[in-house]
Amino acid sequence: MDIIFWIIFGALAGWLASIIMKTDHSQGTLSDIIMGIIGAVVGGFIMNLLGQSGVMGFNLYSLAVAVIGAIVVIYVGRIIRSK
Fold it and tell me: May I ask which residue range the UniProt record assigns to the signal sequence (predicted)?
């Protein structure tokens, strides 16, 4: 059951990041989920580098960390695609 919650959490984070980065119309739901899950990992890594805790569960702080990470993933993806 936890994996379903994490997929929903990742989808929400990816969707929010895609809206912020204005890629919502060009990405699908699966892409949002993948970006959110990868973003949670990347966001947790970034926060650990800054001396803060990463994703700690289902709360607003963790959602913010996952969204920030997903934004970074989308941005890097744009850079790679433009070259």
Answer: none
Q: How far apart are CA 27 and CA 12, in angstroms?
A: 13
- Report the sign of the C-alpha dihedral through residues 64, 68, 69, 71, in that order: positive
pTM, full prediction: 0.80
d(CA 14, CA 52): 21
Q: How far is CA 56 from the centre of its chain?
A: 14
Rounded Cα distance between 44 and 60, Å, is 14
CA–CA separation, 6 vs 61, rounded Å?
Answer: 15
**Phi, psi of 19, deg, nearest 5:** -70, -45
Q: Which H/E stretch holds residue 12?
A: helix 2-20
